[in-house]
Amino acid sequence: xxALLIGTVIKIVLVLAIVAALAGFGTYLERKVLAFMQxxxxxxxxxxxxxxxxxxxxxxxxxxxxxxPQNANxxxxxxxxxxTAATAFIALSxxxxxxxxxxxxxxxxxxxxxxxxxxxxxxxxxxxxxxMMGAGLYGPLLAGMAQANKWGIIGxxxxxxxxxxxxxxxxxxxxxxxxLVGSLxxxxxxxxxxxxxxxxxxxxxxxxxxxxxxxxxxxTNRTPFDLLEHEAEVVSGxxxxxxxxxxxxxxxxxxxxxxxxxxxxxIIFFGGFTPLGFIPGWLAILLKVTxxxxxxxxxxASWPHIRPDQLMWFCWKVLMPIxxxxxxxxxxxxxx
Amino acid sequence: MMNNExxxxxxxDLGGTPATPWCSFKQVMKRTFKGELFVGLWVTLREMxxxxxxxxxxxxxxxxxxxxxxxxxxxIHDMLRLLESGHYRCIGCGxxxxxxISNCIAMETRYDENQRKEVSEYTINFGRCIFCxxxxxxxxxxxxxxxxxxxxxxxxxxxxxxxxxxxxxxxKLHLQKEYEGFGAPSVDADAKIKKTPLAY
Lengths: 336, 200
Ligand code: SF4
Ligand code: SF4
What we know:
The complex is a heterodimer. Chain A is built from 13 helices and 2 strands. Chain A has helices at 2-37, 53-63, 74-92, 125-136, 138-146, 150-181, 186-191, 201-204, 206-219, 231-234, 244-269, 281-302, 308-335, and strands spanning 101-102, 114-115. Chain B is α+β, with helices and mostly antiparallel strands. Chain B folds into 2 domains: 17-58, no CATH class; 77-185, Alpha-Beta Plaits (2-Layer Sandwich), CATH 3.30.70.3270. Chain B has helices spanning 21-33, 36-53, 95-99, 134-138, 163-166, 189-192; strands at 77-79, 105-111, 117-125, 144-146, 160-162. The two termini of chain B are 44 Å apart. Classes of the chains: A mainly alpha, B alpha+beta. The A-B interface holds A 33, 36-41, 44, 298-299, 301-303 and B 37, 40-41, 43-45, 47-48, 50-52, 56-59, 61. One iron/sulfur cluster is lined by residues 90-96, 138-139, 141, 143-144 of chain B.
């Protein structure tokens, strides 16, 4: 019991540290990829290839004034970024990151221990992750309403619109794969696709995958659906009055969510961390997550974003019927 | 593209606004399955590969690299020297001082021991200069010309340049280029000259 507790704490600390660092590195990647796609250079001056730009940004965020507007609801204003960042990381706790591995005997004390690389293998992992990411939307919602700024209010209203639109599609799109696998645990999803590329669920459920990807973009506020903080329209939306570290927490939350969605897509539809031929499992999932992360940046560089009413129209009138039809067809096929 | 080249505008055929629900449905379907979104993805990916591997970057790292500027660009003035003797070209005629629209050239002249005019004081106040180029145009000797120094931020509003600062350094004389900008004779000036009646 103690060993389990200590192991879990170690894993929590590791995941927190690594994902927070990856979120920082993600900003660097995003700037570089966007720059190359727009024929620019991106960060180049701080450190080799501009890599230390992340550190420079971090120092800037840490040393900025922590500003709270006069008429804001101070408590909620201060709590909202924590909600976004915390839920993003809590969601990660139920997502398996790597295959289970054994620590080599050469390492003292812990050698030989078997480490399952998921912090908590709960049997309703998918529900838990989606629920946590949904709860994360309280961050922008509360932030926008607490800051006594009209742009913030608009941002909060758009958060509600977005939330009401895509959450339906996320749930319904993922229902069909769940029916196929018959479990809500992400480990079971992974184990259902051990038969190489041919056994990936994406071949059986391409429609569900596309729907899930679209909803995932909406869930992480990525570009075609970045209504919440679109500078050209609502200054910075819910984040207008935020500065320094609190603003940074929103950012880390967003990037952690991107990583979570990329992980979910890889595990549910693309075989997760099962070894791919000669590629070991941990590398396979790393490649898949990298690809989905890149896809988000790629899409941001390529596509314009849509209006809130178009998002609602799109989600309710197009995606939801498709998702329902997909579920019905899947059900019929399973019955036969 | 040259300005006087004929522009080839093309009207895009955007089609009309769909009138009936069925028409809008058809339009949505057409746009959905035409794959235009993937064309967008392809374009950005192509540009990324071009930027990374084929040197398609458009960035100039400004303080480190500079774009070449046209000889007609009107930046901080230069005072040129005669190539043969190295003496400054200015004959102290005072035309530039006279024509300066913002009164920012101040000069004094006197006779030297050979009874030639020599420039004893010459300053331009760059806080007032509007870089109109009249001085370069009026100068009969092509002595005052516009150079290429366009980084003229300073701590004070009035920034004076002295004659010596603008004059080509004597050891850089071999680097001095003939001015092709504002007020200078054009490259084909000889061909354009018409004979005066005296020549007949
Ligand atoms: S450029 Fe115009 S304003 Fe400037 S010194 Fe020459 S004549 Fe005067
Ligand atoms: S017009 Fe030319 S030659 Fe005459 S004073 Fe000015 S710089 Fe000298």
